[in-house]
Specification:
By secondary structure, this protein is mainly beta. The chain has a domain of 113 residues. It is 6% helix and 27% strand. It has 1 helix and 8 strands. The strands form 2 sheets. It has a 6-stranded mixed beta barrel. A two-stranded antiparallel ribbon has the order 7-8. The radius of gyration is 29 Å and the shape is globular.
């Protein structure tokens, strides 16, 4: 090995100058925490129906079988306060309690908190029976409201993102069926 020329910054041998030790992580501003990404939404084709104060089990109540966010059926339809929905069976099906959906035809977010919906018909991926409330309406008025949105092969978005268009409030309140229609624009699908 050839020696370095005189005046060179490189030493010819030991002792070498001390190596600087840097703290880890480097000192400085706080670094952002990594936040896991929300899994993407899945689109399902469902049989969409409704149930009310008048036809709940027991009738004249808002009792639910698997409360998650609400002690009784309820909700405003927003991402943070979705409306209660029931699924077929005893809650051990494909959508367990706490499963959240967005329903563009109702412009509402819903959450599975109840069971007792009918079996899934052929051609649909599942059955969502949505709580409409209706304690201030007649049985005929709530039945008419539910008939207006009951349909097969309705798009439902499982694990939806926040911020989708909603009509806030119960589906049936103040003796009115509050669903998208001519007086309310239909929500855009995600």
């Amino acid at each position: 090995m050839a020696p370095y020329p005189p005046g060179s910054p490189y030493p010819l041998g030991p002792p070498y100058p001390p190596v600087a030790v840097y703290p880890y992580p480097p000192a400085g501003p706080p670094y952002p925490q990594l936040v896991p990404a929300q899994p993407p939404s899945q689109r399902f084709s469902v049989w969409l129906t409704g149930y009310s104060w008048h036809d709940n089990n027991p009738p004249g109540s808002s009792k639910v079988s698997h409360p998650v966010l609400h002690g009784m059926a309820g909700g405003q339809g927003t991402f943070d306060d979705p409306i209660t929905a029931a699924v077929a069976g005893s809650g051990g099906g494909i959508w367990s309690p706490g499963s959240k959906f967005y329903l563009p035809t109702l412009a509402r977010y819903v959450i599975v908190e109840d069971t007792g919906a009918g079996a899934v018909p052929s051609g649909d991926d599942g059955h969502l029976d949505v709580w409409i409330d209706g304690r201030d309406g007649t049985r005929a008025a709530t039945d008419d409201c539910m008939a207006r949105f009951t349909a097969h092969r309705v798009q439902a978005y499982y694990n939806p993102p926040p911020g989708l268009p909603v009509i806030t409030g119960p589906i049936f309140a103040d003796d009115t069926c509050n669903i998208p229609g001519p007086e309310r624009p239909v929500a855009k699908t995600p």
